[in-house]
Write a structure and sequence with these properties.
By secondary structure, this protein is of the alpha+beta class. It has three helices and 13 strands.
Length: 207
């Protein structure tokens, strides 16, 4: 009786450990800005983290939130100016449309942005930012559309470094997929395979 109880406890602990590790699987999320038409407005929401390894040393400077598709510039954050650090040394598209500069009507959160233009190229983060720290921001253009801002729907990615996690900046305009980020089905499939394997192991151990 005692042996059966110990086996049951052992199997229960094993099941808990395996399922907990499977449910904790999460894709690494680099900083991504999602630009969407919401009602009569265009809203940008940014979130994620940035790994600065592989970029040049920072240059501190004041900056404003703005979108300038023709020059490949999108800077999300509070409405008004803020202090940021500029980095260079990445690769990516030089534009994501043909529109000129537009300032948001409202904004909040961290100043984060990129300029992939042929003249000015820089990645900007809040002054003193440390690699890997979570970033989050938003901005809204009232009475605007993708057409009026001159942005072209699609996914635009800038990269740097040696391919480590979070060494990229992604701009997603409209309802399009973000490359390199597995969907929920991948995690569910992994969980299913894990549970099947665990069931077989439990049967082998007769628990």
């Amino acid at each position: 009786m005692k042996t059966l109880m110990l086996a049951a406890i052992r199997c229960s602990l094993m099941f808990t450990a395996v399922t907990a590790s499977l449910f904790s699987v999460r894709p690494a999320q680099a900083f991504t800005v999602r630009l969407k038409e919401v009602g009569a407005n265009v809203v940008a929401n940014g979130s994620g983290a940035i790994n600065l390894t592989g970029l040049s040393f920072p240059i501190p400077t004041p900056m404003l939130a703005v979108v300038n598709a023709g020059d490949g510039v999108i800077i999300t954050g509070p409405h008004g100016s803020g202090l940021v650090d500029l980095y260079t040394g990445f690769m990516g598209p030089s534009s994501f449309g043909s529109g000129g500069p537009f300032a948001p009507d409202t904004g909040s959160g961290d100043f984060v942005g990129i300029s992939g233009g042929t003249i000015l190229t820089f990645l900007l983060v809040p002054q003193g930012y440390m690699s890997g720290a979570a970033l989050s921001d938003s901005m809204t253009f009232n009475n605007a559309t993708f057409a009026s801002l001159g942005v072209t729907p699609g996914t635009y990615v800038w990269t740097w470094g040696t391919g480590l996690a979070n060494q990229n900046f992604t701009l997603q305009i409209g309802s399009v997929g973000v490359p390199g980020v597995p969907d929920g089905g991948s995690t569910v499939s992994l969980l299913g395979f894990g549970l099947v394997g665990l069931a077989a192991l439990r049967q082998k151990l007769s628990c």
